[in-house]
Amino acid sequence: MLFAATQEVFTSMLGSEIQQVFTPITERSTPFDGVLSLIGLAGALIGNGALVCSAETACDLSSRLLCTEVSQIDEQVLDAVGEITNMIVGGFKNLLEPQVGRMQMSIPSVIFGKNICTRDSKADVAVAVRCAFPGGEFGLAVRLAAARE
Amino acid sequence: MRTEPPNLLIVDDSTAIRKILLRVLNQTGLPLGQVLEAADGKEALTVLEGKDVSLILSDINMPNMDGLELLRTLRGSPQWHDLPVVMITTEGGQARVQEAIELGATSYVRKPFSADLLRDKLAALLSK
After folding, report:
1. pLDDT tens for each residue of A90-118
2. Which ipTM was obtained for this model?
3. Which chain A residues have a beta carbon less than 8 Å from that of B14?
4. Which domains does chain B have, with CATH numbers?
5. Which CATH class is domain A2-146?
6. C-beta separation of A104 from A42 below 8 A
7. Where are the domains of chain A?
């Protein structure tokens, strides 16, 4: 479902095909330089969706979305990556809702930096895909847990 | 009958989406007046106070005032009651679509969207 939602965004809004990249799953995340985009999800399940990519890939994503040449990270790029994450996670949410009930989404938060480390709490539902397109590779993950009373 | 080119209002907290919608609007080939922008529903109402607008394109999920609250406010107001509003949003569930239509949305477009389909839809609305 997550790859399908991503494919829809790329073909309709970015004019690009993507392929799924199969990589070994590691328990620990390693520090990385680049962009991390997060969107919260809440309903019967709570959690978040995340997109991770390098700065170069973020610029390429922004260029394709906005049909302008972008060479370095700025507010426009971060906004574009946030919106791409919003559409992908939103598409995934729309596919998931018939099974789990209505969910709300937060507005995106986008982080750009070096040595970014992430840590995820235990999730009841965890979906992750890695995708490749002509502009590079990026990772997507959605992690959800049962809402606490 | 309208003689002046219509002014339009794009309401979305994403500058990227506002830029894309502006490009799609310019590609309709129809004469357009000013294309105004707002980042949320509250800002949209401020813009509407000062400008005569013929069509609004609005997201749903926005801070301060979301698109459904904006729609509810417009439909409850005598001056903007009949203003066409197209919701452009990631919210694709049937319940959400139904909610927007019942609140008075003129049309509903789900993101991600095909620029060609959106352009044709907007051209049809602007031609009326």
Report:
1. 999 999 999 888 899 998 999 999 999 88
2. 0.84
3. 79, 82-83, 86
4. 14-93+104-127 (3.40.50.2300)
5. alpha beta
6. yes
7. 2-146
